[in-house]
Amino acid sequence: MVTSSNMIEIRGLSVRFAGHEVLKSVNLDVRRNEVLGIIGPAQSGKTTLLKVVNRTIDDTPDVSVTGSVHVDGADIWKLKDLPALRRKIGMVAPLPVGLPLSIFDNVAFAPRMAGLRDRHEIEARVERCLRKAALWEEVKDRLDSLGTRLSGGQQQRLTIARALSHDPEILCLDEFSIAIDPVTTMRIEDVLKEMRSQITIILVTNLVQQARRLADRTAFLLNGELVEVGSTEEIFSETPADQRTFQYVRGIFG
Amino acid sequence: MFQATRFSRRKRRYELLARAVLFLMTLLIVAPLVLIVGYLVYQAWPILSLDFLLTNPRNGMRAGGIWSPLLGTIYLVVISLLVATPIGVLAAIFLNEYTRENWLTRVINMAVLNLAGVPSIVHALFGLGAFVLFAGLGKSVLAASLTLAVMTLPVIIASTKEALAAVPVPFREACWNVGATRWQTIWHVVLPNSVGGILTGVILQVSRAAGETAPIMFTGVVFYKAIKEGDPFAYSLFGQCMALSMHLFTISTQVPGVPKALPYGTAVVLLGVVLAVNALAILVRLRLRSRRKW
Predict the structure, then answer these.
(1) Cβ atoms within 10 A of the Cβ of B185, count?
(2) Which residues in chain A are closer than 8 Å to B189, comparing Cβ atoms?
């Protein structure tokens, strides 16, 4: 396996749902330890792109996928061990999902499923992940209560803690701030800034300013087409490569 | 501001009318149940005793108790569920958790639903052909139990699938996203949150299996058979047995000179078994609801 500087390489990726093309021949590289923002209006294929990367797209009915995707040098379509691919990737969905388990078990779930048995190690990892997700102080006294009973914002941070619990090398955040308040959003953004040097982050967002605040590079998806990808400065400048990018980030359409 | 308009008065009238009609219909369901149970118990009262449960029918079934048919029914129900539950639950897990929707699974699901609607007399003929004759089991407890199992299987599959589907899909996706396999997801998250619903579905099939007559009289239940009283292992799997439903039919219509209380007593016991099991299902469901986790 060749270690390239790219964590993810996508070439000619097309996805069709029941005949409708949601991604059109997308080429995209995600560099190691960068924050890549992906912006674009609803229905532009952002979520689908993430589902392809960890191959949860396999569970979608009536879908056909073509094109090549390499994660850390490996062709994901040839992988036999899907759980290993998914452990490499932390995935945070738009709506927070606390599993119907205790707060502790929510975070301990992935390590346990990966075979970790040592109780002290699990406890240490749960604390570390909850701290990273800025949730530890709020829940440290009630780790036994149900994760599903937390408030929306707390559940979203629990989801982030869970996404970090299996030590992923890539963290995908899909509209993570949709269901949470601005203050919590800012706290999580601070956490992401701290992590950015150790982990590759893909930040899918409707909020163009969020991408501007966090991303090293930004990609603009529109109706399944990757319009352009470049440094965040470029994308948000007066003169991006494509006129549509300029219009979108200025809120002229979308 | 709060003055009644013609329209609001009419709304109120319709509201009262709707309430009255709906209440009446509910009463119409409850009343016969109370009447039936009351009448049965009243008629059966003189004969109901522990002795009635624990002695064989005597004197050409004109006296004695119902030990032999009662034990037969218990055998049939327990064995049929021991067979149908694992197969049905596991098949439902496969259908709900492992298959994607395509024409094949659609056909299978249709088949399951249609099978659940097949009349029991048809299952009886199938059991006679498949178990009694083809498999060579003869008319026996085992053949009759297997026939009941085949009859309850599609309903167990359908109810189990429904219980599994009640667990939200995002829970599964969250598990897959962190690298849990299908089975880990099922075992740690899906099953713990659907076991109550699955059990309820299975338990409700007990009452159906206990009450059926047609499938078992073709495949293993006899008119009369005396067994050792008080011995719970008195029946052999490969021998024939009596059953409450069949016994009720026999002493009500086939034997002259049966005292009136005898068939009523049998009916009360059969009803009691069924209602007790249903009550158990309700308890399980209540427990499930109090433990809801989301």
Answers:
(1) 23
(2) 99-101
Cβ–Cβ < 8 Å for A100, A147: yes
Q: B177 to chain A: which residues are within 8 Å by CB?
A: 54, 56, 86, 89, 91, 93, 163
Across the interface, whether the CB atoms of A114 and B101 are under 8 A apart is answered: no
pLDDT in tens, A59-101: 888 899 999 999 999 999 999 999 999 999 999 988 888 999 9
**Residue bearing tokens 């495949």:** B219
Cβ–Cβ under 8 Å, residues A158 and A105: no
Residue B86 lies in a domain: yes
| CATH code for residues A6-249 | 3.40.50.300
Per-residue model confidence (pLDDT) at position A212: 93
Tell me which of B47, B63, B79 is where a domain ends.
Answer: B47
Is B115 a member of any domain? yes
* B267 and B125 co-located in one domain: yes
The Cα B281–Cα B286 span in angstroms is: 9
Which residues on chain A place their C-beta less than 8 Å from a C-beta of chain B? Answer: 54, 56, 59, 61, 83-87, 89-91, 93, 95, 97-101, 109-110, 113-114, 146, 148, 159, 162-163, 165-166
pLDDT tens-digit map of A171-186: 999 998 887 888 888 8
The DSSP output letter for B100 is P
* Same-domain check for residues B208 and B82: yes
Domain hosting residue B36, numbered range: 6-47
Report ipTM (2 d.p.): 0.90
- Regarding whether B157 and B30 lie in a shared domain, the answer is no
For chain A, the structural domain boundaries read: 6-249
| Number of cross-chain residue pairs from A and B with Cβ atoms under 8 Å apart | 74
Q: Which residues of B touch A (CB under 8 A)?
A: 100-102, 170-171, 173-181, 184, 188-189, 192-193, 293-294
Domain check: are B58 and B23 in the same one? Answer: no
Whether residues B127 and B16 fall in one domain: no
Nearest in space to B219 (alpha carbons), one of B133, B117, B115: B133
> Whole-angstrom Cα distance, residue B157 to residue A169?
41
- Number of domains within chain B: 2
